[in-house]
Amino acid sequence: MFLVALNGASPAHAAAGTPIAGAGSTWAQDPIELWRAGAQVFGYGVVNYNGTGSIDGRNQFRGGTMDFAVSELPYGLAEGGVTDPPPTRPFAYVPVVAGGIAFHYNLRANGKRITNLRLSSATVAGIFTRTITRWDDSAIRADNPGTQLPNLAITPVVRSDVSATTDGLTRWLSTEQPTVWSAYCSAAGRGTGCGATTLFPTVPGDVVLAGSNGVTGYVAQAGNNGAIAYAESSYALTRNTSTAKLLNRAGYYTAPTAGAVAIGLSTAPSDPSGIAGLGAAYTNPDPRTYPLPIVSHLIVPTTTDSRFTTAKGQTLSSFASYALCHQDSASGLGNAPLPPNLVQSGLDTKSRIPGSSLSEVDTSACVASSAAALQHVPQPQACDQVGSQSCDSDAPGGRTESITTTLESGALAISIADSPQVVLPSPVLDSSGTYLHTSGQMTPITVTDTRPGNIAWSASGQIGDFTGPAGSTIDASSLTWTPAVVDHGNVQTVTVGSPVVPGDGSGLKDPRTLATGIGPGSAVVGAGLDLDAPTSTTPGTYTAVLTLTVI
User: Fold this and answer.
1) pLDDT value, residue 475
2) To the nearest whole number, what is the mean pLDDT of the chain?
3) How far is CA 484 from CA 442, 458, 476, 481, 501, in A?
4) Per-residue pLDDT for 397 more than 70?
5) Contact in structure between 449 and 525 (CB atoms under 8 Å)
6) What is the pTM of this model?
7) Which helix (H) or strand (E) holds 178?
8) Nearest Cα to 502, choosing from 550, 439, 443, 442?
9) Is the pLDDT of residue 3 over 70?
10) CA separation for the pair 509, 474 (Å, rounded)
């Protein structure tokens, strides 16, 4: 429980900047939504975002209809003799979302699902250029000693649309396996030396589908044994696909985990525009490296114009700072946190946004926090070294141990870390002259679920009448809210409840859902509060108790 007091106190933050709007990457949409909601809950401003795709986002930013865009691809790329022109207004890139380009596969031998596949860049090149066509090929067996591989045709699944993941894959192949990739480009009618391309060159035998959802959805279907596709590693969570370990420059096969991707990017430079140099991960000598990353950037204005003001810049800079300083929350969505070098680059670049100096987000500890997180990324196991039998191999000579553990029943809890007393500013007459209106933010709550089994939970709230001087009251139906996820944490799925809008009739007088979740972990949720008191309300201080429940 916590109190809501109605008096003339000042809000916790200075006035936030003007609301802003952006569009772009669908892959980055989940973490963008997470950070957008958190920034709003803490009073840093309203950020609206529409995941229409990187190309559309870049086009709308270039056309001046959006304040910012989110894209894995920079301007200036050429495809088929056509160059994607940059905007005429000055702009820069802020790295914001990281992940790995993973190889999602569906492979069974004797009815048993294979989940420990390991691949080198040469083997990947052979698979996607059709020089390796069966799963028991000698090259795949060399990557996977001790693993029984089926005599089964390989079905490559590639993107049919222009795609940043295709650009990332082909850039890596053209760098690591230039001879094989150049020959394939020529055979596919693209000419020799086609290098990186956003549109995959296809040949007969490929399955060609649009979107990362499309290719991973195909692989996930039970009947498609032998299929393999490339897509962002986060799709493994929603599709329940297996992803291959990839051989890095240190001679270890590593999975596209959040830590391995972050380590790979830890030596990535940034060019003057802010674009992260992903090629550094290809050759990073750290044995923990996953060598095929992808990074999404905010595309931000660096000057004001008739549409983009300093007030908008304050909101955009605050949002960028909040995102850069809350990278750990992206891991719960299957993404990777940016390493300290890219966090610092992002903070440097966002300072070029007009109005950045007005941001109230404390960024002083963000880089150090990011660096500390990398120290906990584990070293690879000896059995992941090239030439060793796969770690869970049961082939002759493989070493196995029987491990027993007891999984406790766990518990579901709700807590409030900060003061449970919320003070709303003194109400003022609304524009219609009908109500006295005030608004503010609920103190966020933390829901912690340690129960195994992916059990669902629901958090709700209900308030009593506000009581004031001499028995005066404000009916509980006058308070409404807009729920938001402040920090997704490591919970698999967190969904906010529907907004309860002013004029609803019952407001929070009836129990209303704040958020629902599925799976163990901790998540932080909050809400924006709106109170519409009748103009006849007697002056004074009013209090009410909001009861929060999680079941």
Assistant:
1) 94
2) 90
3) 10, 14, 21, 10, 14
4) no
5) no
6) 0.72
7) helix 178-187
8) 439
9) no
10) 11
